[in-house]
Amino acid sequence: MSNAPYSDTLVDRLACAECVVVSTGAGISAESGIATFRDPGGIWTQFKPEELSNVDAFLRNPNLVQRWFVERRRIADNAAPNAGHRALVELEAMVSEFTVITQNVDDLHCRAGSKNIIELHGNLTRNYCIDCKEPADIVDEVSEDTLVTCATCSGLIRPDVVWFGEMLPEKAIVDAFALMVNVDVMLVVGTSGIVRPAADLPLSARSNGAYVAEINLEVSEIGHLLDETVLGPSGTVLPSLVEAVRTAKEALIE
Ligand code: BJW
Ligand code: ZN
User: Fold this and answer.
1) Which strands make up the sheet holding 97-102, listed edge to edge?
2) Which residues make Cβ contacts (< 8 Å) with residue 228, sequence separation at least 6?
3) CA quadruple 79, 34, 54, 196: dihedral, nearest 10
């Protein structure tokens, strides 16, 4: 018997898997110092979601939302990928078909070196104009009495992220659900499983026969519908799990 927080089944399934998908949420970046959304001390405890994370709120108070995103971008820029992000880069090198599907907008998977990433909720590093839809430059500062507007059409500039009530980028969601048909093992890391359609992906994978395990500090909203919950911080659990998979793969070759 090992003391590992994950099962031997999970390690064996990962060692044999041809198609692995890792779906990530804010929890994987918590150990990089980026606040989650719903945990105590998370973003929603300082701001109400309905105040800041929908397009009506933006139109009501664009300056507040533009300033909030400048601050969010500053925090993300100053953060570095952690051991959890890096472990997924190692796992990608060990599996023939590997995809990270992330709800995060902080760009840390990309900065860690993951190659195959689907971003469901956009990315903080991009802006666009709400009128002409053209990409717009990122600004480092917005004062309380100015608005960032489009150089071409004077429309308001917004972050390229998905707010409540908005559609997810079509290619991202189509590609993500297509992967759920063939995935052998899915890891669901650091998400509360509340926000849809992201929360539907693991359930789709499982109904198609995948082994689905979550890694979280607690059982998430969808945890009871999955094969396994591995309790612990992803920055510790993922490196340990990836090392166990490496060992199991070496044993398979011998
Ligand atoms: C650790 C850890 C450590 C901590 N190690 N773990 C069906 C029914 C009812 C409603 C809907 C429905 N379908 C769609 C909806 C509406 C809505 C929705 O889901 N509402 C729910 C609240 C019910 N969805 C939408 O509107 C989506 N659009 C859509 O579906 O379009 C079609 C449509 C339109 C209109 C009506 C119906 C359909 C869009 C969702 C966009 C979400 N946007 C946000 C903001 C992004 C921009 C920004 O960053 O500001 O995305 S909201 C926020 O939540 C953000 C996140 O990506 C997302 C998920 O949060 P996440 O990642 O799970 O974070 P937390 O904080 O919740 O959880 C952290 C977890 O980590 C916890 O579990 C911790 O325990 C754990 N943790 N430290 C491991 N070290
Ligand atoms: Zn414009």
Assistant:
1) 117-119, 97-102, 19-24, 185-189, 211-216, 228-231
2) 6, 7, 9, 10, 211, 212, 213, 214
3) 110
CA–centroid distance, residue 151 to ligand 1 (Å): 32
pLDDT of residue 1 exceeding 50, the answer is: no
Give me 55's structure tokens. 């397009």
Match 């995060």 to its residue by tokens. 104
pTM for this model (two decimals): 0.96
Residues 93-109 have pLDDT tens digits of 999 999 999 999 999 99
Give the closest ligand to the alpha carbon of residue 102: 1
**Distance (Å) from CA 76 to ligand 2 centroid:** 26
| Angle between helical axes of 200-207 and 170-182 (0-180°, round to 10) | 30
Which residues have their alpha-adjacent CB atom under 5 A from ion ligand 2? 129, 131-132, 150, 152-153, 155
Of all atoms in ligand 1, which is nearest to the CA of residue 215? Answer: 79
User: Given ligand 1 and candidates 43, 67, 164, 241, which is best to mutate, with the most ligand atoms within 8 Å of its CB?
Assistant: 164
> Is 121 an active-site residue?
yes
